[in-house]
Specification:
Elements (H helix, E strand, L loop, with lengths): L8 H12 L5 H32 L9 E2 L3 E2 L6 E8 L2 E8 L5 E9 L7 E4 L4 H18 L3
Antiparallel strand pairs: 1-3, 2-3, 3-4, 4-5, 5-6
Length: 147
């Protein structure tokens, strides 16, 4: 086995300092975006649970196979967090963007592996984003349960 010198940990500590200095206020804006995303996610989860419970009560529990993910870092951007709602191959993405005053982007529903879209944006919080997600969530459930 060949000996290799350890990596320079100090170099990476300095790199973290350098990258964090690009936008010192980003951590605070990301915290706000994460809180807004968690609130919206909890609202979506409540709607899915109501749907799942009713489907089970009427003898159609197979309709309730819908997953709502945790809020996690966005896959594409460092200044955003996201959560997913999925049923089979159909997905809906909710992305809280910390840029500027912040905004929520709702993407889908779309089939995983296909082009993502349609996209719509609203403020991080409020009736507009709640309504937008409600409509998109209903569309996801309808599309994903079509026979």
């Amino acid at each position: 086995m060949k000996y290799t010198a350890p990596m320079d940990n100090q170099r990476f500590a300095k790199l973290a300092d350098e990258l964090a200095e690009r936008d010192p206020a980003l951590a605070l804006r990301l915290r706000e975006a994460r809180e807004a995303a968690r609130e919206l996610r909890d609202s979506a989860y409540g709607a899915v649970e109501a749907f799942r419970q009713r489907a089970s009560e009427i003898g159609a529990p197979y309709l309730g196979n819908i997953e709502v993910s945790r809020v996690e870092p966005d896959e594409k951007h460092i200044d955003a967090v996201q959560f997913r709602i999925a049923r089979g191959r159909f997905e809906l993405l909710c992305i809280a963007i910390a840029r500027g005053d912040g905004k929520m982007r709702i993407v889908g529903p779309f089939k995983r592996g296909k082009e993502e879209g349609p996209c719509a944006e609203a403020k991080l919080r409020g009736a507009e984003v709640e309504s937008l997600l409600e409509e998109r969530l209903a569309a996801l459930v309808r599309e994903a349960t079509a026979v």
